[in-house]
Amino acid sequence: MQQHVLVAGFSTRHVVQSAYKAGYITYAVDHFCDQDLFWYTRDRMRFEELEEIPGCIQALAEKYPIDFLVVTSGAEHLRTRIPLLGTPADRIARLLDKEKTHQFFTELGIPTPTLVGEGAYPMMVKPVKGAGGWRNRVLLNDAEKSAWIQEFPDTPRIFQHIVKGTPASVSCLSDGKRGVAVAVNEQILQGSKEAPYGFAGCITPIDHPEADEMIRLAEKAAGESGCIGSLGVDFVLSEEAWAIEVNPRFQATLDTVEMATGCNLFRLHARAFSGDLPGRRPPARRFASRRIMFAERDFELRGDLARFAPAVADIPWPGSHFEEGNAVVSVFGHGLTREAAEQMLNTNITGIRRYIQQ
Hints:
The protein is α+β, with helices and mostly antiparallel strands and 358 residues long. The chain folds into three domains: 4-85, Rossmann fold (3-Layer(aba) Sandwich); 90-282, ATP-grasp fold, B domain (D-amino Acid Aminotransferase, Chain A, domain 1); 287-357, Aldehyde Oxidoreductase, domain 3 (Alpha-Beta Complex). 28% of the residues lie in helices and 27% in strands. The chain starts with a strand and ends with a helix.
């Protein structure tokens, strides 16, 4: 008998799609409600502000026999009567706080950038809470610090020593006591003036001399985190692996992990709750890449990007309006080598860009 799963959070398509392919009947509470979310859900509700999520969950739960709730970014703190297929809010709280996460890594002896005083330029500023990295900035002087505070007033923040290297992550599973790595990923950052450290895509797997050490540290962190199911540990790789953050939920790398390994992360996530973890990391069968296309100018989408599926996901509806810098659509590529995956990705991006500009 199929079980009913409700996925709630700012963006849920990737999790819903994985759950659907794992054989679940799915529902969603989502900020975007893109076209492909409709493909994989029996019903869904869209919200504007995060405060609306609990009411949307209640409305769907009153209408359908929901067996489990899964939360993504923006909904991790929720407490409901629906059985949670994820890490409880009280256990997850410290991992959503970057200062407490720093303490967590330090206590475990895992290398992590040190916290610095407010005037120790250059330094990295981050909000204490928040996901996606879009508010992270390098500050060189007092003027830049003042500008950041003016842009994000009343936002608690931390300042860290800057570590240069390759942004990366490890997708892990945990049963609350043990951690097992599923895949290693390279993170692609926006690099724009407005959001230089904002997430813009990923490549699975990553080939780096410190990948094995990164896996060892990530599995240690995952096992000690108290998380259950899927979680990710972010790193910067240079001469050594520096742990940056823990994402105690499904990560934005889900699509490329599944594409590269052939495994279903939602199925593995559900099995972790009974203590069933993979005996070893599934081998990568190919390279998979994802890039988020951002609007280069203000425009209205006249065509239908669904025609490019499955090379695209998070597909907006025809007639959607985008302002410069808005995320438009996710684009994928794959191949037996990284170069082949990137070539397919770039070809797909070029075709989509031409179609949009017609």
